[in-house]
Design goal:
The protein is of the alpha+beta class. It has a single domain, classed as 2-Layer Sandwich (Fusion Protein Consisting Of Minor Coat Protein, Glycine Rich Linker, Tola, And A His Tag, Chain: A, Domain 2). It has 3 helices and 3 strands. It has a 3-stranded antiparallel sheet with strand order 2-1-3, covered by helices on one side. Helix 2 runs antiparallel to helix 3. The longest helix has 14 residues. It is elongated, with a radius of gyration of 13 Å. 10% of the residues are buried.
């Protein structure tokens, strides 16, 4: 699961960098809660916390998280949180 999340960082940072062009002060930590079905699909996700204060960016990030596909496993539905820091480079 962590591997899938780590691999998605490039796409998440690309979304952030596009928003950063419009607001150079945009930065902060977000914590996302994901509900992952046994087939690997994301069935729900929401922010536990966000320091970004940019609803448009937050919605784009949520859409990206919803599109993730994890490896199917013979387990119950899993709920996990994932923190990520967005800082200008």
């Amino acid at each position: 699961m962590r591997l899938t999340l780590e691999r998605s960082k490039g796409a998440l940072y690309a979304i952030y960098n596009r928003a950063l062009r419009e607001d150079a002060s945009l930065q902060g930590k977000v914590v996302i809660e994901l509900t992952i079905a046994p087939n690997g699909s994301v069935t729900a996700c929401h922010f536990v916390s966000s320091e970004l204060k940019n609803p448009e960016l937050e919605q784009k990030l949520l859409a990206r998280f919803r599109s993730l596909q994890f490896a199917a496993e013979d387990v119950d539905t899993m709920i996990t949180t994932y923190p990520i820091d967005f800082l200008p480079s």
